[in-house]
Amino acid sequence: MKVISKQKNSRMCIMCGLDNEYGVRAPFYNMEDGSVMTVFEYRAGHQSYPGRVHGGLITSMLDEMGLRALWTKEGDEESFGVTFSLETKFRRPVPYGEKIIGKGLIVKDSPRFFSADVGLYDNCGNLLASGTTHYLRLDVNRIAEGSSAHEEMCYLVPDGVKEIVFEK
Q1: Euclidean distance between the first and final Cα of the chain, in Å?
Q2: What is the rounded CA–CA span in Å between residue 146 and residue 34?
Q3: Residue 140 has what DSSP assignment?
Q4: Exposure winner among 10, 61, 113, 117, fewest CB in 10 A?
Q5: CATH fold group of domain 3-152
Q6: What mean pLDDT is predicted for residues 17-36?
Q7: Cβ pair 67, 13 in contact under 8 A
C-alpha cells in the first residue's frame, strides 16, 4: 500500500519518542486508504514472558495508532484527544525482535469524540492483537499544561519509505 506522508515523532513518548531509551521509536505513515500504519520491532526489554511482548505495551501501541489515525486527515496534526476507553483482544503472542505491522483507521468522528479500529499483524498478515479505541477531543494545552505539542512532536525524520507491503 502506498505511503502518502510520514507523521512526526515525539521526544519522549513510549511508542514514538526518539529520545526515550526504553521506547519503541516507531515511525507512523499516512496511507493511501486513509489509514495510519507503522512497521516496527519490539525489543527484548519490552518482554513479559520470554519471547513475548508485555500486554501493556501491545495495548499502548494500539492506543497510539488510534490517535494517530486521526492525523491522517490533512491539517489534523493539531487535533488531540485523551483515551476514555480501549478494548484490546490478544489473538496470538506478539514476539519481540521481529517485524510488526500496525494499522489504524478512524471509524467514528464527531466534534467531541472519535473512535478507531486498530490492529497489530505479523509479517505474514496474521492478526496478533486488535482493539477499538475511543477518545474525547481535547485541546493539547488542557492535556499537557505548561508544555507545547510543537516542542514535543518535533522530529520528522525522512526514511524513504514509499510503500508498506501488507496482506491480511
Answers
A1: 12
A2: 32
A3: H
A4: 113
A5: Thiol Ester Dehydrase; Chain A (3.10.129)
A6: 96
A7: no
